[in-house]
Amino acid sequence: MKSIRIFLLIALLSTITLVNFVAALHGYRASMAEAERLFDRQILGTARLLAAMPVNRAASLVVNENDLQAFQVWSRDGKILMRSDNAPVTPIGEGKAGFSEENFSGFRWRVYRHTGDDGRSIRVAERVDLRFRLADEVVLQSVVPILLGLPVAGLLIWLVVGRGLNSLRQLADELRRKRAEDLTPLALSSPPEELLPLVRSTNALLERLQASFDRERRFSADAAHELRTPIAAIQVHADNLANLLAKNSGETQQSLLQLQNSIARMSHLVEQMLNLFRMTPEHYPARFEPIDLHRLARDVIADSYPTFARRAQEIELGGEAAYILGDQFALVLLLQNLLNNAGKYTPESGRIAVDVRVLENAVVLQVADSGPGISTAERERVFERFYRVGGDRHESRVSGCGLGLSIVHHIAELHQAQITLGPSPLGRAQAPGLLVVVRFPSLERTTREITNENVEDERALS
Amino acid sequence: MLLTSVILVLREVLEAALLLSILLAMTHYLGLKSRWIFIALTGGILGSIAYGAAIGAVSETFDGMGQELLNAAMQFAIYGLLLLIGILLINNRGGRQQYRALLQWCMVFAVALATLREGSEVFVYMIAFRHQSDLLQSVLSGALIGAGIGFSIGALFYYLLVGLPQRRRLLVALVLLTLVAAGLCLQATQLLEQADWLPAQTPLWDTSALLSENSLMGQLCYALLGYEATPTPIAVAAYVLGLLLMAFLLSATWFRRGLPERESSNEFA
């Protein structure tokens, strides 16, 4: 059902039409029967009147009549005594006495044959179409107002239903005006009984949601502070210790190096966890602006170039300038995570290719690597938090926390982008590589959709 | 005159409107665009006017039996289209999307042909009264009443079908399509009997006392089930044959396809 209003309008109008017209048909049948009886009585009366009239037996009399009734008076010996001018000179209504139907003078007639006490035979005929015409007239009188009334009824139903749906429209308005992060209760002045459960449960839901978001936000803020501080302190102390030991003995202890690595991993994990929390679409206060994704990719690649250079990896950027409506900070994080992932899993002197291209209604970012790739079965799971392909026993022996793709997923969701994973064009048989395709709606489409949405909302509610 | 035109127009409008409701409900069910309806109706109405205007020339072909034969051919064509629509509907079951354009065009042609056939009869009937101004008013109001009742029943029938539970909707629509299609076979046979292509026979039974064809209920049964108060043995045979053939082909398609499988996808967002 597209619209309650149109459904009610059509269903109600159909019902009204159906009921009224069927009633009119029954009325037609009833008035037809009534007309039959009325006309028959009239014929009978005329016949009796004629039977009671004295007639001149010497010469037949022709009486002027209107076109609708005809009569003949025959004597016992079969001589015509009197007739109307529209009746033929031959006997009409031969056969047994009473009512019958016959054709003459180009019409169909209902004929009544009556034999008087003196043996005179009287035949009175009336045109059949008269009766139909009367019944037609009666039913037309009742149908025409209905026909004229239908558009009026339609208009009234339209207005009344619109009025009845007013509070629903208010509710929709209220919900539409709500921004994603606004979880204040709906303020609907005196909602009707039918909407009350909806408003109540929505408000209860919003309240629970608000509480849960608040808890999460507080937790991530607290966790950020609580975790970062001791890690930073440990890092400083470890560095100091390393310097001290290096100065004294001239060489760095192996276990201290491991400690430093562990601290770095811990620090990375904490940062990634905070990023993940921050990037949840419900929490993140995104500031959308037109951004050239190609240029952004170039900057991010330039920033992280030393990491790739250290492992002698070859990184290239293809494509063209492509604008999307996006949040700069989030997009940088997305690119960093994708590049980081590609760099980690691509072996030394491997290749990584980044490509940004404008397609019809979309901007497509592709990051391809020549690493081990991800099997089809695992592709769905890699977006889960802390999931790592093959666990820590992965052949690449790359450490990581398993949050990178979850963050990417959140940022994609924030931008209404679609992520697809597939085998990389840079891959070989042993290492099929991974191709990550992120499909952003183009700037024009996003702008158009926002405009259309507003227009459609307006239209649906008007 | 009024009653005659009510019955005639109601008969024609109801037949087209019920078919339209079933197909429209299926369009809704499959999530297709309902814009096709305008193409079909416009084509059908223009076609019926053209056919009605050329009815004299058409009648003269085939030894004066051109009209009956052409109408019978159209009925069989609609039967074939409904059969194809039924099979395609089953193939589109469970969210599968196959031959959607073909399905859409079958619907367009079925509705356009039905509108053309029924519309031309109304058109020819109306044209006969255009110079009899004394009768014209009752003929016109009779036609309006007939059309009003026909369209109202069609609209309510549509909402009834749309309101059915999702999993039963397809089955109900297929049963209805089969019944309507079998009725088309019966009517086509009667037309061929009128054209003397099939021998005239005495009716097998007479149920006009039980349910008159001229009553509203009789008209509804005529449009939906192909009800005929006095059918000949050939007509009954054609009805049963049409019914069984379609029922067999549809159930064969239904069970061959099995249960709809879920397609896997690697897409996330």
If you had to describe this structure to a student in words, what would you say it looks like?
The complex is a heterodimer of chains A (462) and B (269). With 462 residues, chain A is an alpha+beta fold. In chain A, the strands form three sheets. In chain A, strands 1-3-2-6-5-4 form a six-stranded mixed beta sheet. Chain A has a five-stranded mixed beta sheet with strand order 8-10-11-13-12. In chain A, helix 4 packs antiparallel against helix 5. The model of chain A has no long low-confidence stretch (mean pLDDT 83). By secondary structure, chain B is mainly α. Chain B is built from nine helices and one strand. In chain B, 42% of the residues are buried. The C terminus of chain B is likely disordered. Classes of the chains: A alpha+beta (462), B mainly alpha (269). At the A-B interface, helix 1, helix 2, helix 10 and strand 12 of A face helix 1, helix 6 and strand 1 of B. Strand 12 of chain A pairs antiparallel with strand 1 of chain B, so a sheet runs across the interface.
How would you summarize what this structure contains?
Chain A is an alpha+beta fold. Chain A is about 55% helix and about 20% strand.
Q: What labels would you give this structure?
A:
heterodimer, A: 462 residues, alpha+beta, six-stranded mixed β-sheet, five-stranded mixed β-sheet, 11 helices, B: 269 residues, mainly alpha, 77% helix, 1% strand, globular, disordered C terminus
